[in-house]
Specification:
It contains 8 helices and 5 strands. By secondary structure, it is mostly helical. The strands form 2 sheets. Strands 2-1-3 form a 3-stranded antiparallel beta sheet.
Length: about 180
Amino acid sequence: MMSRVKRAYTLPSVAAVAALALTGCSSGLGMTEGVVIEGTGYSVAEVQEAAEQLSEVSPEPVAVATVIYQAGVAPLLHRSFNDTSYEVTESDARRVLSEAGLEGEASDLTVQAVTFQEYGALLGDQEALADEELAPVIAELQTLSAEDIGALEVEVNPRFGSWSASGDGVLPQVPGWISSPSD
């Protein structure tokens, strides 16, 4: 007859499991911030809402990374165009969103992304670029490097990626525990 062998099992404590789970979620930003741009924090929900609002008025869906990049660069462009007749104000951006058919109130992050888009459209307008008022602005923007963009005060929750120091915008962040088949 076979004798049964008893094995001792220990269950990990709930506190240890919770601590381990939370270490994978922490980002240094806090659990509720999706992005911090120049000291202003936006929650994960606000970042997702901005992507949804922009997708509502865009021909194609707008990715969260695009929203973060556009909103992150917008303050730089705003400072460059400040005090010119081409400055895009918050009310200008809200009007653009309203005219595009956005239902409801646009979030601040959505407004910031649209501000970036409006400056981008302006930089593609040959007539505006020929205006002497913009000559110093264009000269300043032409001196910017990818490192300047990467050095902007933008902190991204790892859930959405990371701000690239090389100026590539928001790059996806693959957790270390995920490996490709070739690893």
